[in-house]
Amino acid sequence: MPDAVIAFEAASKTYAPKANAKGGGHAALSEVSLSVQAGEVFGVIGASGAGKSTLIRLINGLEKPTGGRVVVDGDDVAALGVEGLRALRRRVGMIFQHFNLLSSKTVADNVAFPLKLAGRPAVEVKARTAELLARVGLSDQATKYPAQLSGGQKQRVGIARALATGPKILLCDEATSALDPETTEQILDLVSNLNRELGLTIVLITHEMDVVRRVCDRVAVLEAGRVVETGPVEDVFLHPASATTRRFVREADGEPAAEAVLAGRVVRLTFRGEATYKPVLGQVARATGVDYSILGGRIHRLRETPYGQLTLALTGGDVDAAIARFQAEGVRVDPVLAGEGA
Amino acid sequence: MNNIDWAEIGQATLDTLTMLGGSMVLTVALGLPLGVILFLTGKGQMLENRVANGLLSLLVNILRSVPFVILLIVMIPLTVALVGTSLGVQGAIPPLVAGAAPFFARLVETALREVDKGVIEASFAMGARRRQVVLGALLPEAMPGIIAAATVTAIALVSYTAMAGVVGAGGLGDLAIRFGYQRFQTDVMVVTVVLLLILVQALQMVGDTVVRRVSHR
User: What's the rounded Cα separation, in Å, for the pair B78 and A124?
Assistant: First the structure.
């Protein structure tokens, strides 16, 4: 793919075994292959210990792969020398779960830090810092210290700092996991805006499906160091193929209603875009004489696209005809197997 | 209070302050880099080196385990080589530094370990060189701890100077021993001890104030 700015080519990372441990090392990542396109928001979701942190750290060389390659913006990260790696890191910003601001420096000095590291002239540093603080809405906090800020403000400082050297890529390491829901939303909005306005390519790792649903274009699901599923968020979210993904989706939506006790065919209907708002259910039921019981459902948005998903038990009438009519209306119908969940 | 020779006490105070000032400057100048190297060569750190760390650690432990009075005497040949004499205030400074610098280095190492690893990682992620990480992030972040360590070290040096009388360095502690203890002039002892107490209090207050000024946690 010509537009891939980040490519994992069968990248593996095995940590050396502890001196006192038996057996081999611990494999954090096993032959991960992924590509991230320029300008997209790419999510990586996984439980803790799945290898997310290692994966994101391979991109800016904080970790080196023990097998395969990671190519970022044309460079094989592991092959870069000290100066090459520094140059790459100026093109790849990173924000962190715990913000990792310097407590000894003011907000402005934190934002200016990467510019000073790069040896930019003082006049430029000052102007750029002011510009960045304005972008994240913290111009009036410039002389404060991080300890005087709220969590959301700290993450804004982190974002301003990550953007200082004008990167093409922004890495978000569980960037909203330490924030309350409202602040999470504000930070995710800011990240989305940066993606749109600056054309930043964003890679974010998270354990929350909700974060993926709100901002990501594509997602990879990581389990025990392997990618178990990858694709556009809509597909992965609405039609999860792996048990791990289904678990994340269920966490984001809450547990579905009990099912399988009912007679009839249990199906899951997926409405996307305009179909979400059509009164399809009643029309089909009347036309085919089918009765339906709603076992579970959700209506939400994936970024800007509305969608609905309903799990129904269909009884009586012509069930096959009903399913055909649903499909004709642009509604996807999937049979639900016992125990699979909604 | 008629047997108190105030001129002598004045001279002793001056000697104590000279020894303290001179040895403190050198203790920081040697102990700070030593502490940084001890930290950086430690396990999981950016210059991890078991051999170097082991050797430095051993050196620090040897110097720290020798009682200061013994150090004063054992070091005489080295002291002569360094400052030309083993006597007086000048002769006391090398052993004072040898006793205090390893102590300070350990405290610095501990202060550096307290620095959030995430901040170090973030600095590297921003494209910092190792040197920039140490000077621009690690040391500033550890500064409150390092200043607290310097305060503790300065106060330890005050009590070390009391023993420097062994090599004729004078000072308040020496006065307390020679007049107060050996000649039973209790009032001299009380005055010198009060002066030492004031010195220690002043050091602690200054140290605490500076720590508060540089700490923004």
Answer: 53
